[in-house]
Model the fold of this input.
Amino acid sequence: MRIEARLAEKAFRPDQELAGFAADGAGAVVSFIGLARGETADGAKVEGLFLDHHPRLTEQSLKDIAASAARFDVAAVRIVHRCGAVAPGEAIVFVAAAARHRRAAFEAVDCLMDALKTDAVFWKREDGVDGARWIEPTEGDRADRARWSEPCPD
Amino acid sequence: MAKIAFYGKLAERFGREVEADLPAQGCTIAALRGRFDGLERATVRACVNDETVGEDHVVRPGDRVDFLPPLSGG
Done:
């Protein structure tokens, strides 16, 4: 399995990430793009996000999460994740998986996103018009992550 | 001296990195936590030279210590 995981300090182009995602022999490529929302969960306006990161542990966490896709029958995965200041509408994360058949690619991307939401080494701050707020994983995020903790069906 | 780095909301409070004077024999993570207000053991993970360590781990001069608050995830 080919594993690519990269931390992007500046805005990146998800379309170029997909175009450059070589998947020789694959019958399926699934990709996901996460965008910075312009509103908080409560509907308040967000002027931007700031993703603080660790100089080594963050990229290592992305690599470890990408490698965890080996449990699926995929040939290649790519993760690109932003850090620093992210404006609403900009891409925060790009995840792609290539496989011989579609099911494995869909499942790998779904699982990788759930893992990224809880295990990626980031500290996220929402900067709103009425102040800034540091975000922590929600119970929903943890429940999404736990879906993949059960043994795989044979 | 040891370098102590903070992240997320802890970095806002203490700055990204500070240098701490250590005795020659070093000092434990537990003792180091005590020098700062708000590094609760239950939620703030300690790493020394990029490895997660326990409360009894002895930090030596020249080490790099990271205090990591709960991750927000990506």
About this structure: The mean pLDDT of chain B is 93.
